[in-house]
Write a structure and sequence with these properties.
- By secondary structure, the chain is α+β, with helices and mostly antiparallel strands.
- The protein has 2 domains: 11-266, Glutamine Phosphoribosylpyrophosphate, subunit 1, domain 1 (4-Layer Sandwich); 281-461, Rossmann fold.
- It has an 8-stranded mixed β-sheet with strand order 1-5-4-6-3-12-11-13. A 6-stranded antiparallel β-sheet has the order 7-8-9-10-14-15, with helices on one face. It has a 4-stranded parallel β-sheet with strand order 19-22-23-25, sandwiched between helices.
- It starts with 10 loop residues before the first strand and ends in a 10-residue tail after the last helix.
């Protein structure tokens, strides 16, 4: 299976600020792997896809790409950088067609960012196909080894290419049958947007780890990771794509296929805690509403005698407001975030090492000086950024610091589409709460309990909590235990 080449040579772009090599670490934050968007039946499909990706920028900031088609010719443009960097200039003008899919992503350590930029486009026996993938296949290595042993040649280190190979090897000839046949061999998390001929296809895995929704914009149909992407293009939310469902959109409209039997749902609870934008509705739930519930419950479980409540912006703003509402302690803007510092292209690296967290945040001395402060954050991963923030607040005059976390301690790695560190790097995997408190140099530390988290989400049994309790609902086969995924990724397939 070789790479697709459209009549117009597909363009590949590198953001000018990229310095080469691996991207700088995101430090003490978890990273979502990617966001996907698709639209069928719009005159300006690529431009609308660009807007959708812009709304989904928080889901992936290392590369972006769009593939557009008129049903015959595929035109693509992708590259390393933020959406606005990759599609600077006249790039969108070349992407003609009424159907398009887009993707932005994070990569994991090792491997070329550019070669793994999506959507992936290939030629195969039935024509051309393009795919964008949010999630991670836990059996990708085993499938890849099997196919390489039979002569398949891979050009990326992404598990998304594994899906493409499986589709190409299908014995079926209709895409509606080829996709289910391929995905029947895939284990793990996937929300997919696929272009095949004049069809736009969306699929979610049987457990529904990652979100995917369906919208309508006049006569056009839209697929997106989050509803905030529907809002930006003026589309109305229709419904979620259900776990185990494939929707096929073409000139006949939208057709639904239940391609897998019902499984116990395991929607990623961290979409609600941190990843998704607060203005989105994800898994049928208002993200802002859930985060305020988390903050209120956190105030009940871990009250504090304090003068002000502040957030670690922006993902914990809603939880901090909930904590303030429940506790009666006024909310203040004690930390200001620099929104113009991208998580990927902070260069040169020496500046990052010298200034660290000061590049992203600044403490407001007038608000903090002499105050007893409650700091609300959504999570602590390694603890390094939290420790630096505490030092910043102390330097700004905070008299007491009471750190509150609107999720339970993260003690386990995620293998379903989140780029978490190895488990040994997660501070909660080897330290007690009291030890973490001492490490952070705070006066008190309180995490939301698992009982509190479950009480704040609707249908608590339908969510995945593996990063908190190690209960992996999709087990790894004998050929790949979870330790194999924790080894350096130079050998392993990179997550999408």
């Amino acid at each position: 299976m070789k790479e697709s080449r459209s009549v117009t040579q597909p363009s590949v772009h590198r953001a000018k600020s990229h310095t080469g090599g691996a991207a700088p670490s995101s430090g003490d934050r978890l990273r979502e792997e990617c966001g996907v968007f698709g639209i069928w039946g719009a005159e300006n499909a690529a431009r609308l896809t660009y807007a959708g990706l812009y709304a989904l920028q928080h889901r992936g900031q290392e590369s972006a790409g769009i593939v557009a088609t008129d049903g015959v010719e595929y035109r693509e443009h992708k590259g390393v950088g933020l959406v606005s960097d990759v599609f600077a200039g006249r790039a969108l003008e070349t992407l003609r067609g009424s159907i398009a899919i887009g993707h932005n992503r994070y990569s994991t350590t090792g491997g070329s960012h550019l070669q793994n930029a999506q959507p992936l486009v290939v030629n195969y026996r039935e024509g051309k196909i393009a795919i964008g993938h949010n999630g991670n296949l836990v059996n990708a290595l085993a499938l890849r080894d099997e196919m390489e042993g039979k002569g398949s040649i891979f050009q990326t280190t992404s598990d998304t290419e594994v899906i493409l190979h499986l589709i190409a090897r299908s014995s079926a000839t209709e895409i509606e049958r080829m996709v289910p046949e391929a995905l029947a061999r895939c284990q793990g998390a996937y929300s997919l947007v696929i272009l095949a001929g004049d069809k736009l296809i969306g699929v979610r895995d049987p457990r529904g780890f990652r979100p995917l929704c369906l919208g309508r914009r006049g006569d056009a149909h839209v697929l997106a990771s989050e509803t905030c992407a529907l809002d930006i293009v003026g589309a109305d939310f229709v419904r979620e794509v259900e776990p185990g469902e494939m929707v096929v959109i073409d000139g006949q409209g939208v057709r639904s296929h239940r391609i897998f039997r019902a499984e116990a749902q395991r929607a990623c609870v961290f979409e609600l805690i941190y990843f998704s934008r607060p203005d989105s509705v994800v898994f049928g739930l208002s993200v802002d509403s859930i985060r305020r519930r988390l903050g209120r419950r956190l105030a009940e479980e871990h009250p504090a005698e304090a003068d002000i409540v502040i957030s670690v912006p922006d993902s914990s703003n809603s939880a901090a407001l909930g904590f303030s509402e429940q506790s009666g302690i006024p909310f203040e803007l004690g930390l200001i975030r620099n929104h113009y510092v991208g998580r990927t292209f902070i260069a040169p690296h020496q500046i990052t090492r010298d200034f660290g967290v000061n590049l992203k945040f600044n403490a407001v001395r007038r608000i903090l000086d002499g105050k007893r402060v409650v700091v609300v954050d959504d999570s602590i991963v390694r603890g390094t950024t939290s420790r630096s923030l505490v030092a910043m607040l102390r330097a700004a005059g905070a008299r007491e610091i009471h750190f509150r976390v609107s999720s339970p301690p993260i003690g386990w790695s995620c293998y379903y589409g989140i780029d978490t560190p190895n488990r040994r790097e997660l501070i909660a995997s080897s330290h007690t709460v009291e030890q973490i408190r001492k490490y952070l140099h705070v006066d008190s530390l309180g995490y939301l309990s698992m009982e509190g988290l479950r009480a704040c989400v609707d249908r608590p049994d339908d969510h995945c909590y593996a990063c908190f309790d190690g209960d992996y609902s999709v087990r790894f086969g004998e050929e790949m235990d979870k330790l194999a995924l924790e080894r350096p990724r130079a050998r392993t397939a990179e997550t999408s």
